[in-house]
Design goal:
43% of the residues lie in helices and 19% in strands. The chain contains 26 helices and 35 strands. Strand 34 and strand 35 form a beta hairpin. The protein starts with a helix and ends in a 10-residue tail after the last helix.
């Protein structure tokens, strides 16, 4: 009795834990005013579970019952049947319960699987036409994106029902003598034979339906071809061999199914088994051998001509599905030199060069503005646009939120961790193109509380990227706010968010859900207390919009007196016909370690920047705004979850200027453009013009260079715009193949992709070549080694920026120095190069530009720091001595070997290129030996 009581108590506890998860989720959705999302999803899942679970349970029970009803009246006497009599007798009292239990078990498993397909159901029932038809079957894309996946699920479920029913029926038939393995006479009774034949006929009929759907699935079939790993769609052999083969196999399967259905009438298995054998043989010959023959004897002799129509469909569909069909490509032959007059038109671009690297200056923000150990900044800061407090002109600004960092709390306890230390405070911002006399950022917003150019706003950060634990607020408890000259300040939350804890059942549910029994008895939870949880912006948006794929980089915006997090939400599909697939995680990986958000799908072949979401850092309020007003996938989800997405016109006017083109989407698009910048099928077929994203020359892990947010003017545009930029190099070389930028300022040109395609005979420097040229410069090498050899400093290279200036490309790289005992680096030098110009290595950007062009082009001064003085080309080295002769000779050898390698590359002389590269490596080693250990990054191979 005690054991039964313990089992019952354990069962009740497990049920309550399951209930606690459901109940706390329901309360959370109500607290953020998205209860309709919770309700819609719950109803859909319960409905699918009930319907498909009942179908599976009913089919299993019905077939088992039929097998019992069709049992022979008398079983033939044999050892086998005598052994089974004991089981038949033993099952009599529990037969119905056993049947019911088996049916419910099968139904529960099937229902749970069907409930997980709630997305397919909602997409199918709310489908919105794309208005675009595929080139093979002439069906709207919505058929492939919304209908076909649901139909294939239904067929798969049908297979599951039959595959459960057949063994269940066979087992009952065997148990009651309908099937026999021993003894004289027929091995199967007429009832068992007919029953199983009909079930097998249904199975083959479902296979016929599957063959018919497979015809359409060819349009979304993925394979690897000609350097395109996710190539999707029909090719010649698919359209002319696999497609007719699927049709023939469908007809053969239908005939075979009829033969199975006739088996109870004809009382023989022979025709059905013969038909089944014919179907299997047809699948091998027609579905396998025939396409191989077509490929070998029709396609290969004239492959380009055969594949051209299908390549055209793939190219057009891929460019349309990834939003790159409207990319504007301009051919350019980069200028090798420029002067003050040439670069005058690009003064806005040059003046806005963002030398402050958001990936390097985070420790600076941490050291200067952390204020208390329990605050912290993200490792990568955000780049946005705010007015310059001096001029009022909008400038690129690096901004970070001072969030709560629980690891900095000195004494951890349940009260400290969840009641006292509850929130971060304020933001810190710096001008992107300025540093002060010591090489530190020029802060435009700083202090605790923060003051500066951003004006008054609610600075308390209860919801942020680092806020991963729950907090209990209100209820009379006083939280630690911040420390000022007047001492430690306290605060009581009044944002109104969170779930109230006044109800005992709610407290018990949170105690179970969080594994924190203190919720049940702690006196710290007073009347009116509320619990805040799921506090990161991505968690909140992912829960209220589970149909979105989120960008991996939320960024803060101060607007309208509040601090909000902005997230980009993508609608995706992997069933756009003829569009090649891409793996999101791979496409969005770069040297910064960036990854898509937590809801990122695996492979996609359709993506749109459809939703702009905001999360209020104080109240946690989540708001979704429709951004892409034409996207049929978004329209479908808006019909499925009505009222959850606000129209684009509802975006606050103060927020709109801060919206930007999302980085993950851009990285996916640039990955696809590596192959699909080619629009001519013949050129695409040859595969000789593939591009790749260059490796980041400042990163030793040889990872792709990340894109950069910059304000620049693209050639042919009237003014400079905030843009997201990247570069391409040829697949097998390091010279610049193209420069890519997308307009990121909200407006009529938002999302316009502009490609400057470099002429094939150009020797424009790619990022790795520019870095090699920087490393080969005698003055830079001397200064860098003097810094490193002093034993008290490290050198960090900032983002290597490529900018179109004066008809060519300007490469600019900030150089940071971090003292051994220092907590953060400071900007000390600027490297720059333009075409055939010598490398400029100067104390600030204006000096570097004057060395290149004879003008600073309006660049903002970057004051020199306290590092070693520059050698010739900047200022004199220590003591006024010249660069040592052996250093100058070694640097000259490096420059000569580098020039030889570029000339060989331009001429297509691969033997000469390899020899020159070998000489370059040797010369670099000599230069490193001459200047001492600890040189800069190695030149690119």
């Amino acid at each position: 009795m005690v054991l039964l009581g313990g089992v019952a108590l354990l069962a009740l506890l497990l049920l309550f834990v399951a209930f606690a998860g459901f109940w706390t989720d329901r309360l959370w959705f109500r607290s953020v005013h998205y209860g309709s999302v919770f309700g819609t999803r719950l109803r859909t899942e319960l409905g699918l579970f009930a319907v498909f679970g009942l179908v599976m349970a009913g089919a299993t029970a019905l077939n088992a019952w039929l097998a019992f009803r069709l049992r022979p009246p008398l079983a033939a006497m044999s050892v086998e049947q005598q052994s089974l009599d004991r089981y038949r007798t033993g099952l009599v009292p529990v037969r119905r319960w056993l049947l019911l239990g088996a049916a419910l078990l099968a139904g529960g498993v099937a229902g749970a699987g069907a409930a997980g397909q709630w997305r397919l159901w909602l997409l199918w029932t709310n489908a919105t036409p794309f208005g675009v038809r595929d080139g093979q079957f002439h069906r709207d894309v919505s058929f492939y994106a919304f209908d076909l996946p649901w139909y294939r699920f239904l067929v798969g479920f049908g297979f599951g029902v039959v595959l459960v029913s057949v063994p269940a029926s066979a087992l009952v038939h065997y148990l009651y003598g309908g099937l026999r393995l021993q003894g004289p006479g027929r091995r199967a009774s007429a009832g068992a034979q007919g029953h199983l034949a009909v079930l097998l006929g249904v199975l083959v009929l479902l296979k016929a339906v599957a063959y018919w759907l497979d015809r359409y699935a060819l349009a979304v079939k993925t394979g690897s071809w000609k350097g395109v790993g996710g190539y999707t769609g029909l090719r010649y052999v698919d359209a002319n061999a696999f497609l007719p083969a699927k049709t023939i196999l469908c007809c053969v399967a239908l005939i075979c199914a009829v033969l199975f259905f006739l088996t109870p009438v004809r009382r023989t298995w022979a025709p059905a088994l013969l038909g089944f054998g014919l179907m299997v043989l047809s699948a091998v010959l027609i579905g396998g051998l025939y396409p191989a023959i077509v490929q070998q004897f029709q396609v290969k002799p004239n492959e380009q001509a055969k594949e051209t129509p299908y390549l055209r469909q793939n190219i057009d569909a891929t460019r349309q599905a990834y939003g790159i069909a409207g990319a504007l490509t301009t051919e350019t032959a980069p200028a090798a030199s420029a002067d003050a007059g040439t670069v005058a038109a690009d003064a806005r671009t040059v003046g806005a060069i963002r030398l402050l690297d958001p990936n390097i200056v985070s420790p600076t923000f941490q050291q200067l503005e952390q204020q208390r150990s329990y605050y912290g900044f993200p490792s990568t800061l955000a780049v946005d646009r705010y007015p310059d407090p001096r001029t009022g002109a909008v400038q690129d600004t690096v901004i970070g939120v001072r969030e709560l960092d629980p690891s900095g709390v000195q004494q951890h306890s349940w009260i400290n961790d969840h009641f006292a230390y509850t929130h971060g405070y304020g933001v810190v911002a710096a001008a992107g193109n300025q540093v002060d006399a010591s090489g530190q950022p020029v802060l435009t917003e700083s202090g605790l509380p923060a003051t500066g150019a951003l004006g008054d706003f609610q600075q308390r950060v209860y919801y942020g990227e680092r806020t991963t634990d729950y907090a209990v607020v209100d209820g009379g408890n006083r939280e630690i706010d911040y420390t000022s000259d007047a001492g430690q300040q306290s605060y009581q939350y009044s944002g109104g968010s969170g779930v109230p804890l006044d109800d005992p059942l709610t407290r018990a549910a949170f105690a179970a859900a969080f594994g924190q029994p203190q919720f049940l008895y702690s006196g710290a939870i007073g009347k009116g207390a509320r619990v805040l949880y799921d506090r990161t912006p991505q968690q909140r948006v992912a829960k209220v919009a589970p149909w979105l794929t989120l960008d991996g980089d939320p960024y803060p915006v101060v607007e309208g007196g509040r601090l909000v997090w902005v997230l980009d939400g993508y609608t995706t599909s992997d069933d756009y016909p003829f569009s090649s697939r891409t793996t999101l995680a791979d496409a969005a990986r770069d040297s910064l370690g960036g990854q898509p958000g937590p809801t990122a799908a695996g492979q996609v072949n359709y993506i749109r920047d459809s939703v702009k979401a905001t999360v209020d850092a104080y109240t946690g309020a989540v708001t979704l705004y429709q951004w892409d007003q034409q996207d049929p996938v978004l329209k479908t989800w808006m019909k499925a979850f009505p009222g959850t997405v606000l129209p684009r016109a509802a975006i606050p006017a103060a927020l709109l200027p801060h919206l930007r083109y999302p980085q993950d989407l851009f990285e996916v698009q640039r990955t696809v453009l590596g192959a699909y910048h080619v629009t001519d099928p013949a050129s695409f077929f040859s595969g000789t013009d593939l591009w790749k994203v260059p490796q980041d020359p400042t990163d030793d892990r040889r990872t792709p260079q990340p894109p950069y947010y910059l304000t620049l003017r693209m050639p042919g545009t009237p003014a400079a715009d905030f843009s997201l930029t990247s570069t391409f190099v040829p697949a097998d070389r390091d010279n610049l193949a193209a420069f890519l930028a997308v307009d990121s300022d909200p407006g009529p040109d938002y999302g316009t992709i502009r490609i400057l395609k470099v002429a094939g005979d150009s020797d424009a420097l790619g990022p790795n070549q520019a870095q090699s040229k920087f490393n080969a410069d005698a003055g830079a090498a001397y200064w860098l080694n003097q810094v490193k050899n002093g034993g008290d400093s490290d050198v960090q290279y900032g983002n290597l920026l490529t900018l179109p200036v004066g008809g060519g490309f300007l490469e600019v790289e900030p150089v940071y120095v971090k003292g051994r005992g220092a907590k953060y680096p400071v900007l000390q030098k600027v490297l720059a190069v333009y075409g055939d110009h010598d490398v400029a290595f100067a104390a600030d950007l204006p000096d570097a530009l004057r060395a290149l062009f004879g003008t600073d082009a309006g660049a903002t001064p970057v004051a020199p720091g306290a590092g070693p003085p520059s050698p010739p080309g900047g200022t004199a080295p220590p003591g006024g001595a010249a660069v040592p002769p052996d250093v100058r000779k070694a640097a000259g050898d490096v420059e000569k070997a580098y020039a030889d390698s570029q000339n060989a590359l331009k001429a297509g002389d691969w033997t000469g290129y390899a020899a020159a590269q070998k000489e370059l490596q040797q010369a670099m080693a000599e230069l490193a030996a001459a200047t001492g250990p600890g040189g800069g990054p190695s030149p690119a191979p």
